[in-house]
Amino acid sequence: MKFRDWFSLKGIRKEIKNVSWLSKKELAQNSAIVLLFCFVMGLYFFAGDAIIAFILKTLGMN
């Protein structure tokens, strides 16, 4: 397939048919995993920041 053919509507339609789309269930599961991961990482960074702030406050550097 030539480069020019790939950027035609026919080529774009052909490529879209090759895409494997997620089902609604898979999309919901993956979205939940991402949101959970973001929440856990947010707690991790919040706790780390709080601990460092506590240490600096205890040492009188804050």
Automatic annotation (TrEMBL):
Signal peptide coordinates: none
Protein's GO biological process: intracellular protein transport; protein secretion; protein targeting
Ranges annotated as spanning the membrane: 32-56
Gene Ontology molecular function: protein transmembrane transporter activity
Coiled-coil ranges per UniProt: none
Assigned keywords, A-Z: Membrane, Protein transport, Translocation, Transmembrane, Transmembrane helix, Transport
Subcellular location: Membrane
InterPro entries to which the protein is assigned, alphabetical: SecE_bac, SecE_sf, Translocase_SecE/Sec61-g
Any one of the GO CC terms: membrane
Main subcellular location: membrane
Protein name as annotated: Preprotein translocase subunit SecE
Native organism: Thomasclavelia ramosa
Gene: secE
